[in-house]
Amino acid sequence: MKKNNFILLILLLLTSFTIAGCGKTNNTVKNNDYEPLPPMPAEVVENYMKYTLGTIPDAEIDYDKAKEYLNDELKAQFTNPMFVPTSYCIQDGPDDVRIISDQVVAGGSIGVVVEGKYGGEWKEMWQFLITPIGDLSWAIKKIECLNN
Q: Does 5 map to a domain?
Protein backbone atom coordinates (compact mmCIF):
# COMPACT_ATOMS: atom_id res chain seq x y z
CA MET A 1 0.00 0.00 0.00
CA LYS A 2 2.82 2.40 0.90
CA LYS A 3 4.53 1.54 -2.40
CA ASN A 4 1.37 2.48 -4.34
CA ASN A 5 1.08 5.74 -2.41
CA PHE A 6 4.73 6.51 -3.17
CA ILE A 7 4.24 5.87 -6.91
CA LEU A 8 1.08 7.98 -6.86
CA LEU A 9 2.99 10.81 -5.15
CA ILE A 10 5.77 10.62 -7.77
CA LEU A 11 3.23 10.71 -10.62
CA LEU A 12 1.47 13.67 -9.01
CA LEU A 13 4.75 15.58 -8.67
CA LEU A 14 5.74 14.85 -12.27
CA THR A 15 2.34 16.01 -13.49
CA SER A 16 2.65 19.21 -11.44
CA PHE A 17 6.09 19.97 -12.89
CA THR A 18 4.82 19.33 -16.41
CA ILE A 19 1.80 21.58 -15.95
CA ALA A 20 3.91 24.32 -14.32
CA GLY A 21 6.29 24.18 -17.26
CA CYS A 22 9.42 23.25 -15.36
CA GLY A 23 12.22 22.27 -17.70
CA LYS A 24 10.35 23.76 -20.63
CA THR A 25 12.48 25.37 -23.33
CA ASN A 26 11.50 28.64 -24.95
CA ASN A 27 11.05 28.07 -28.67
CA THR A 28 9.26 31.33 -29.45
CA VAL A 29 10.58 33.51 -32.24
CA LYS A 30 10.82 37.24 -31.72
CA ASN A 31 9.38 39.42 -34.48
CA ASN A 32 12.76 41.01 -35.13
CA ASP A 33 14.53 37.67 -35.66
CA TYR A 34 13.50 37.39 -39.33
CA GLU A 35 12.70 39.52 -42.34
CA PRO A 36 9.06 39.58 -43.45
CA LEU A 37 8.40 38.06 -46.86
CA PRO A 38 7.81 40.50 -49.72
CA PRO A 39 4.24 40.77 -51.01
CA MET A 40 2.90 38.12 -53.35
CA PRO A 41 1.73 39.12 -56.87
CA ALA A 42 -1.90 39.83 -55.91
CA GLU A 43 -0.70 41.92 -52.95
CA VAL A 44 1.63 43.87 -55.25
CA VAL A 45 -1.39 44.81 -57.38
CA GLU A 46 -3.58 45.62 -54.37
CA ASN A 47 -0.87 47.84 -52.86
CA TYR A 48 -0.18 49.60 -56.15
CA MET A 49 -3.88 50.36 -56.60
CA LYS A 50 -4.19 51.54 -52.99
CA TYR A 51 -1.37 54.06 -53.57
CA THR A 52 -2.61 55.29 -56.96
CA LEU A 53 -6.43 55.19 -57.03
CA GLY A 54 -7.80 57.77 -54.59
CA THR A 55 -11.41 56.73 -55.14
CA ILE A 56 -11.21 53.20 -53.68
CA PRO A 57 -11.70 52.30 -49.99
CA ASP A 58 -8.53 52.50 -47.88
CA ALA A 59 -6.74 54.54 -50.56
CA GLU A 60 -3.52 56.24 -49.47
CA ILE A 61 -2.24 58.21 -52.45
CA ASP A 62 1.55 57.92 -52.33
CA TYR A 63 3.23 57.82 -55.73
CA ASP A 64 6.67 57.10 -54.27
CA LYS A 65 5.36 53.97 -52.56
CA ALA A 66 3.46 53.04 -55.73
CA LYS A 67 6.68 53.15 -57.76
CA GLU A 68 8.18 50.49 -55.49
CA TYR A 69 5.80 47.98 -57.10
CA LEU A 70 6.80 48.77 -60.70
CA ASN A 71 9.65 47.29 -62.71
CA ASP A 72 12.37 49.68 -63.89
CA GLU A 73 10.79 50.22 -67.31
CA LEU A 74 7.46 51.37 -65.83
CA LYS A 75 9.19 53.44 -63.14
CA ALA A 76 10.87 55.42 -65.92
CA GLN A 77 7.43 56.23 -67.37
CA PHE A 78 6.02 57.27 -64.00
CA THR A 79 7.42 60.81 -64.09
CA ASN A 80 4.23 62.62 -63.03
CA PRO A 81 0.77 61.77 -61.67
CA MET A 82 -0.71 61.70 -65.20
CA PHE A 83 0.89 58.26 -65.51
CA VAL A 84 -1.90 56.87 -63.34
CA PRO A 85 -5.01 57.60 -65.48
CA THR A 86 -3.02 56.87 -68.63
CA SER A 87 -1.83 53.48 -67.38
CA TYR A 88 -5.31 52.54 -66.14
CA CYS A 89 -7.06 53.87 -69.30
CA ILE A 90 -9.54 55.76 -67.13
CA GLN A 91 -10.81 59.30 -66.63
CA ASP A 92 -12.69 58.55 -63.39
CA GLY A 93 -11.49 56.15 -60.72
CA PRO A 94 -13.57 53.16 -59.67
CA ASP A 95 -15.57 53.10 -56.44
CA ASP A 96 -13.88 49.85 -55.49
CA VAL A 97 -11.65 47.13 -56.98
CA ARG A 98 -11.30 43.38 -56.54
CA ILE A 99 -8.97 40.72 -57.89
CA ILE A 100 -10.88 38.06 -59.76
CA SER A 101 -8.00 35.82 -60.83
CA ASP A 102 -4.27 35.39 -60.70
CA GLN A 103 -2.55 32.69 -62.69
CA VAL A 104 0.80 31.79 -64.15
CA VAL A 105 1.32 33.02 -67.69
CA ALA A 106 4.31 32.78 -70.05
CA GLY A 107 7.81 32.81 -68.61
CA GLY A 108 6.90 32.39 -64.96
CA SER A 109 5.06 35.70 -64.81
CA ILE A 110 1.70 36.04 -63.10
CA GLY A 111 -1.36 37.61 -64.72
CA VAL A 112 -3.62 39.32 -62.18
CA VAL A 113 -7.09 40.30 -63.48
CA VAL A 114 -8.88 43.07 -61.61
CA GLU A 115 -12.46 44.28 -61.73
CA GLY A 116 -13.48 47.85 -61.02
CA LYS A 117 -16.82 48.83 -59.56
CA TYR A 118 -18.49 51.78 -61.28
CA GLY A 119 -21.94 52.89 -60.14
CA GLY A 120 -22.62 49.58 -58.43
CA GLU A 121 -21.62 47.46 -61.44
CA TRP A 122 -18.46 45.32 -61.51
CA LYS A 123 -16.52 45.27 -64.80
CA GLU A 124 -13.38 43.39 -65.74
CA MET A 125 -10.96 46.27 -66.19
CA TRP A 126 -7.27 45.42 -66.06
CA GLN A 127 -4.74 42.66 -66.29
CA PHE A 128 -1.49 43.29 -64.47
CA LEU A 129 1.52 41.31 -65.62
CA ILE A 130 3.70 40.64 -62.57
CA THR A 131 7.24 39.37 -63.02
CA PRO A 132 9.74 38.02 -60.52
CA ILE A 133 12.64 40.24 -59.54
CA GLY A 134 15.37 38.89 -57.32
CA ASP A 135 14.75 35.84 -55.18
CA LEU A 136 11.31 36.46 -53.70
CA SER A 137 10.11 39.83 -54.97
CA TRP A 138 7.62 40.72 -57.71
CA ALA A 139 7.08 43.84 -59.80
CA ILE A 140 4.42 45.09 -62.18
CA LYS A 141 5.72 44.85 -65.73
CA LYS A 142 2.59 45.82 -67.65
CA ILE A 143 -0.94 47.08 -67.06
CA GLU A 144 -3.30 46.01 -69.82
CA CYS A 145 -6.68 47.73 -70.14
CA LEU A 146 -9.39 45.16 -70.87
CA ASN A 147 -12.50 47.34 -71.33
CA ASN A 148 -11.73 49.84 -74.05
A: no
